[in-house]
Amino acid sequence: MRLPRPLGWQTLTLMRQNGAPVGPAQHTPDGVEVLVSVGSAAEWQLPDAEALTEGTIDVPHPATVAPSTQQAHTWIVSPQECGPLTDADLLHEAYAAALASGSHGHHPTTIITIAPTPGVIASLAVRPWIDHTAAGQNFAPMLITHPTPRRPDDTPEAIEAGMRGVAQALGAGRPDCFLPDVGPRVAIHRGTVLIRFEGAPHLLTTRAPRWVQIVTGLGLVLLAVGFDPLSPGTHGAEVDEYIERAGKSDRIRFAGARVAHSARHWPRVEPPSSARLLTARR
Predict the structure, then answer these.
(1) Which residues lie closer than 8 Å to 202 by C-beta, 6 or more apart?
(2) Is 86 within 8 Å of 94 (Cβ atoms)?
(3) pLDDT at 267
């Protein structure tokens, strides 16, 4: 079954919350595709849901899971990590509930309410790097944090409030079963990385030439926003420890952001020549 992307994510989230088993499901440019038994969903009458016939879908390698992609496809639930196919009746019930909720215009974890100020954006520290999955596939994380306090008004409360606003404006959510897809929030312009915030005219920029070369081919970035400050000089194992500690204490948010070939491909945003660019610390 192919479901529209926001509703598809919400449907799988509802199934998880209700304790219903979820079988293999993939995220594609056309929507969320959930594998069910052949013919079990033939009588669905719900809007925007499409029953696909045999031989009409492409699937990535079973080891390709978010944030990795293969020709813009990635497994939300990989065949390697789950049991049988999803029960079509339970999927129908969850999809109907998602439709009835009236919130399917947005993924439930990506509702944006706060736009970060230019001062907050300019203060951010960005750490992009290339990592590998257990299967040896590259993926591109980018950790965004506030540097350690330097001014009297850099209180823990102020820093946390600012970083929560950054996470909301990027559409980042809690590290749970599903990685929020926030669309094309990253672009490359003449070797510079541009990061777009929902509701703000200001773009965060950073330079990482080697990272840019790889991420352009991958097409997807794993954004991580930490609520606690981190010294700009922190690298390697200390960054890993920060992420692990923040995850355990619910003080980090994640999102999968697609890479646009140009900022001109971003929806409702001006190109970099006329937008305000704020350079991040590294």
Answers:
(1) 116, 118, 121, 275, 276, 277, 278
(2) no
(3) 54
